[in-house]
UniProtKB/TrEMBL annotation:
Residues 28-181 form the Phosphoribosyltransferase domain. Pfam families: Pribosyltran. InterPro entries: PRTase-like, PRTase_dom. This is Ribose-phosphate pyrophosphokinase. CDD domains: PRTases_typeI. It comes from Arcobacter porcinus.
Length: 217
């Protein structure tokens, strides 16, 4: 790995650099909730929420992969059972939509629901109506997860919705910009590889890790 490609030492450093591009003073004039859409994003969300004196949460979601191809993401299902499908890939692989929805339901029941039960005693993230929401992640590549989270949160009738990330692919900007109030980022990349290529240290976080982060306050 070339050192020229490393932009952040770790998530903590990325989070504090992200604070530099956020309009913190104007944001502090209103009440916000910071929502992560990944475990790595949750670590960043905590730091940003503390700077805003706001609450922070995570919107659980899981990727759905193409049959016989565990590296090809064709859809994302969130904890409110919203499903966002990558239509071009589904058509390209000739995958039946019913199969995608069936798989999404199974993933929700077997993977997402148990996490909600353990993390929030079964309470889904359904209290965002009328709130200013800042969605945070450690990076945005394809953008399927982020778009699924945006869709899920918008459908709750929020007051405003913004996105903040240290890194994102240039290709994802237009779609996100079109449906959010603001998009904040540090580095955009035309030829995006993967997040850990741009961090010196990007430890993979587990469900137990975010439980620990939550308990630490």
């Amino acid at each position: 790995m070339s050192l020229d490609n490393i932009y952040f030492k770790n998530r903590e450093v990325a989070a504090f650099k992200l604070l530099d591009v956020l309009p913190l003073e104007s944001m502090k004039l209103e009440k916000w909730i910071v929502v992560a859409c990944s475990y790595g994003g949750y670590e960043i969300a905590k730091i940003i929420a503390n700077a805003l004196n706001s609450d922070y949460e995570i919107l659980f979601n899981e990727k759905i992969y193409a049959p016989n191809n565990e590296e090809c993401e064709i859809a994302v299902v969130t904890e409110l059972e919203e499903v966002l499908i990558h239509e071009e890939l589904v058509k390209a692989f000739d995958i039946e939509l019913d199969l995608v929805y069936l798989k999404s339901k199974d993933v929700f029941e077997t993977t997402i629901k148990p996490k909600i039960n353990k993390f929030r005693a079964g309470e889904k993230l359904t209290y965002l109506k009328g709130k200013n929401v800042l969605i945070v992640d450690e990076d945005i590549n394809v953008g399927l997860v982020m778009m699924a989270c945006i869709k899920t949160i918008i459908n709750q009738g929020v007051k405003s919705i913004s996105v903040a990330t240290p890194l994102l692919s240039t290709a994802s900007i237009q779609a996100i910009d079109a449906i959010t109030d603001d998009l904040y980022y540090i580095k955009k990349l035309d030829h995006y590889i993967e997040a850990d290529f741009y961090y010196d240290s990007l430890e993979k976080l587990s469900f137990e890790d975010i439980e620990r982060i939550k308990k630490e306050g």
